[in-house]
Structure formats: C-alpha cells, structure tokens
Amino acid sequence: MDSGQQNHQNVVVMRHGDRIDNFEPLWTEKAARPWDPPLVLDGKVRAFCTGKKFKSNLGFPIHRVFVSPFLRCLQTASEVIYALCAVDDCATHMSSADGVSIDTSKLKVSVEYGLCEMLNKRAVRAENAPKDGNFAFTISECEAVLPEGTVDSSVERVYKELPKWEEPEEVARDRYKSIIKILADKYPAENLLLVTHGEGVGVSVAAHTEEHVTVYEVEYCAYSILQRTMKEKESNAAGEFKLCNQGHTGILTMPTPPRADEIIKEPEPPSSS
Q: What is the pLDDT of residues 189-228, one digit of tens each?
C-alpha cells in the first residue's frame, strides 16, 4: 500500500478473456465439460496484454490474486501473472507461450469458489450444465493451471464449496459484493486482483458508485479498480471502497432511476384556503 499515515488498499476486479464456445459453437457437442470452456488464443493474448497494462499503468503493485475455479478464469489469471511477474519486459511477448521468464516471488495466487460464475441458467446454458448439478472442480487440478511457484495453497478459502445449481441472481450478486470485502479485509495490507466473471465485475461497479447505474456490458478482460483508505491507529481502520474515476475499463453503464422508496418527495405547498 501507499506509505504515510493514510494508506490505500486497491482491489482490481477483472473478467476472464475470450472463451472458446462463443467462437466455436460446436465445441460443446464433443466437450467432456461443456460448462467449463477454455480460452481461445486471442483470449490468452488479451489477458497477457491486460497484465502488461496493469504492470505499467496501475500505479500500484498487485500482491495477491484470487481466481474463480472455472478454466477460463484460471487461464486468464495465469496469463496476467506471467505478465506481472515477467523478468524481462519484452515488447514482442504476447502470451506465456512466448517463453516468458517470471519471478515467482512477486505475488501469490489462490483459487476461491466465491468468485465462481453464477450457477443458474442465465449464466450457464441449461443444455451445457451437468445433469446432476455437480460442476466437479478439484482444487489441485485448478492450481495446476496456474504458474508453478506462485500458488499459495495455505490460504483458507472463504467458500468451502460451490453454490448450489439454480443459484438466484440476487443471491449471486450479494455473493460477489460480499467476497470482495471479505478478501480485502483478510489481506488489508495487500493490493488484490480478483479474476472472476462478467456479473462479478458488474457488481463491483454498481455496488461502489454513488450514482445509480446499471451495468449492461462487461467486455472480455474488462476490469474495475476499487480503492479504500486505511487509517492507522484507529479501531475502524478501513474506509468504504469507492470506484476509481478511471477504474472501469471495458465496462459499459447507464443511469438507473432510484427505486420509489428512495425518492425524496418535495413538500406540498401550503393550502391557499
């Protein structure tokens, strides 16, 4: 964090890269796990280049990464980590496949079930979902996708298991909002990167702006930047997270009118009688 009496904690919330089933619709017909598509090559390149942008433009280091167990998020996190931890900032490197050497002491990464996709038919096509509702993730297999030497297996997961299939949308949104704060509170002296899904990124914006906004599109590898003040020597050390002014790249919003119960009505004029 920043030095001085008033420090800041930063949390970057990022969507995964380009998933294969949105470019090759027939992929799901032969896939063993049609609910868990990998990235296409362009998705890996986009993720790596986003990581390079983080390294040069964020203005603060990433100390710790948490990632959804879905393969597209694991692969995205892997590419970002390669970019952030690269020993040589070579302009010709476009993905980890280009022989990028990394310093594994730069940051640590852990899998967190609480960052997973909304487990309902709005987010996972019904025909692709497992018939028994078991998405069958194994932490060790998830960790094997991440760069060797960067995984922190000692971290205790907030969510010990996935949400149940047919998770209501509002419950999922509350989950995303909650997991951001829980992870940040758990590591208050560190800046975090959370690699998740479009809805999670949308919640990070809508829940941390003073205006009423609706997020209607989150592009691949889009991200928000949340920041809060950490005051030393006070019992309530952490302030509220706020969205940075330029901290929602690739996220499209529109104003939303407040709910009826939030509208303050003007007083009626006095009667003339």
A: 999 999 999 999 999 999 998 888 999 999 999 999 999 9
Q: What does the alpha-carbon distance between residue 116 and residue 45 come to, in Å, rounded to a whole number?
A: 22
Residue 255, SS3 per DSSP: strand
Q: What CATH number has the domain bearing residue 46?
A: 3.40.50.1240
Report if pTM > 0.70.
Answer: yes
Cβ atoms 15, 194 nearer than 8 A? no
* SS3 state at 164: coil
HSE-CB at 148 with a 13 A cutoff on CA atoms is 2
Six-digit token string for 98: 């280009």
Rg (CA), the chain: 20
Q: Please, what is the average pLDDT of the chain?
A: 90
CA 98, 100, 105 angle in degrees (round to 5)? 160
Domain span at residue 99 reads 6-215
Under a CB-based contact definition with an 8 Å cutoff, are residues 241 and 181 in contact?
yes
How far is it, in rounded angstroms, from Cα 218 to Cα 222? 6
Q: Residue 273: inside a domain, yes or no?
A: no
CA nearest to 70, candidates 31, 119, 37, 118: 37
Tokens coding 121 = 């038919």
Count Cβ atoms within 10 A of the Cβ of residue 106 and give its class: 0-12 exposed, 13-18 middle, 19 or more buried.
middle
